[in-house]
Specification:
By secondary structure, this protein is mostly beta strands. The protein has 4 helices and 29 strands. 8% of the residues lie in helices and 40% in strands.
């Protein structure tokens, strides 16, 4: 029995010793969430709480906090933790000339050593600021030295607090080239894919912060930008607005093919990108998206919306395809939201000699899987924006499309006996297309068009005058 008790007491002693040696001290960011806690940003203040862990009944603690790069990471203030300001002292011994940072801290609860104490207290809160001249991709390492705590055990026990160094990466100013969204020194179609990855990620929900470039330009030149919370996204903000939007895609055609060998602030982005999903064209219907402009333009972006009516509720929009306005190689990006029944898209020529002409035309086609009979929806283009070959952003016009049920007095027509018939006298353009979006017939300001040569099938007739376009679906039978 005595032997058993001796072994038990030894085990308890080892357990107590283990518990006492497991007390730890650590630094916890208080200004950001955990996803941003690993970096600090130039011109911004950041705060840390110094806390104890596995420290029940603590009545005091003392330590030195040392950190590197103190010439750009400056101590800016403090506030008391759990023990209050009367029991807390701090001495800043940092040297900004050598870059050696050192802050000595001591804190006591003021209670007797045998008092109950406080479990896992916050010893002190410290604030720092990163100066604008900090170099991007440097770091500041924070280390605890001589950290001790008073833990309530009998009359109180001083224990050595364990800790691990903590490294903060420094985000500062980098050089960006508008259009080079993957930061590899070349503007090509991969840049459009990179932009697509970040569109909407720093919206009102603030998944990460973005910063405007001041001043900003979309022209091909090196520009200074403060690195974002997502360092990769800094380069995808091609227009410098502080947000990644569909409009940034228009800068890719503007600067397509341009190169730079300037030193980069970040390594090129090589994360695989997700392209638009493939689609099978066999059973799809192409619905034209109409657009009009008073000048030639290199690329355009916007949102297209549709309304699936009850008799066509099973239809599914599966993609967007380029229209006939641009020639040569074309950049096309789209993101479909089936719930909201809309899609963001950007389209543009990758050659400055293949511009979309002024006037009305089909900028793209909505690809529709019918999944049954019904009335095709007419997509409406919202807030379209164009960019000229000189880099000027300007608003495009979305023709106000109407259906047969809402024809206007100024523009109207009907399909009867395989004839296109209109009584409108105002100048207009008539286009007859099939469900694959192919233009079969075009005419200017005429009253009739003979459709006898068209085979049996489903077609669209579009009559445009000014900014108004009347679109009708019709069926030619035997």
């Amino acid at each position: 029995m005595k032997r058993f008790l001796s072994i038990l007491l030894i085990a308890i002693g080892l357990l107590v010793s283990s518990n006492l040696s497991s007390q730890s001290i650590r630094l916890v960011r208080s200004d950001v969430d955990s996803t941003r806690a690993h970096f600090i940003t130039a011109t911004f203040r950041f705060g840390v709480d110094i806390t104890l862990e596995s420290a029940p009944g603590c009545t005091g603690a003392a330590f030195e906090l040392r950190y590197t790069n103190a010439s750009v990471v400056r101590f800016s203030g403090w506030s008391a933790g759990t023990f209050g300001s009367r029991g807390t002292i701090q001495v800043d011994q940092s040297d900004i000339t050598t870059g050696f940072g050192k802050i000595s801290v001591g804190a006591l609860s003021g209670d007797p050593a045998y008092a109950k104490g406080i479990d896992n207290p916050i010893i002190i809160h410290l604030d720092f600021v990163v100066t604008p001249d900090a170099l991007h991709n440097q770091s500041s390492v924070f280390t605890f030295v001589n950290a001790q705590g008073i833990i309530n055990k009998d009359s109180g026990t001083i224990v050595q607090l364990t800790s691990n160094p903590l490294t903060f990466a420094i985000r500062s100013f980098v050089q960006v080239w508008p259009g080079d969204a993957d930061n590899n020194g070349l503007v090509d179609t991969r840049d459009a894919s990179q932009i697509g990855r970040f569109i909407g990620n720093n919206d009102s929900l603030t998944m990460f912060r973005g910063f405007k470039r001041r001043p900003s330009s979309i022209y091909w030149s090196s520009q200074t930008a403060l690195a974002w919370d997502s360092a990769q996204a800094t380069y995808t903000d091609c227009d410098g607005s502080g947000d990644v939007t569909i409009t940034d895609l228009l800068v890719v055609p503007l600067n397509f093919g341009k190169t730079t060998f300037a030193q980069k602030g970040e390594t090129p982005l090589v994360v695989p990108v997700k392209d638009n999903p493939p689609y099978s064209p066999e059973n799809l219907v192409k619905i034209p998206i109409l657009c009009t402009s008073d000048r030639q333009y290199l690329a355009a972006s916007g949102k297209v919306a549709w309304n699936m009516w009850k008799e066509y509720k099973n239809a599914q929009v599966v993609g967007i395809e380029a229209g006939e306005l641009f020639c040569g190689d074309v950049m096309l990006y789209y993101n479909i939201d089936s719930i909201k029944q809309n899609a963001d898209f950007a389209i543009g020529s990758l050659s400055h000699t293949c511009l979309a002409p002024a006037g009305v035309g089909v900028i793209a086609y909505l690809l529709l899987d019918p999944q049954g009979p019904g009335t095709f929806p007419l997509p409406m283009l919202q807030t379209p924006t164009g960019i000229t070959v000189s880099g000027l952003f300007f608003p495009l016009l979305a023709p106000s499309g109407v259906y047969e049920e809402s024809a206007t007095n100024d523009i109207s027509f009907e399909i009867r006996n395989r004839q296109f018939i209109t009584t409108s006298s105002i100048p207009s353009t008539i286009n007859i297309t099939d469900v694959l979006g192919r233009t079969l017939l075009t005419a200017e300001s005429t009253n009739t068009i003979d459709l006898q040569m068209l085979p049996t099938g489903v077609y669209f007739a579009a009559m445009t005058s000014g900014n108004t376009t009347l679109v009708k679906k019709f069926i030619l039978s035997e």
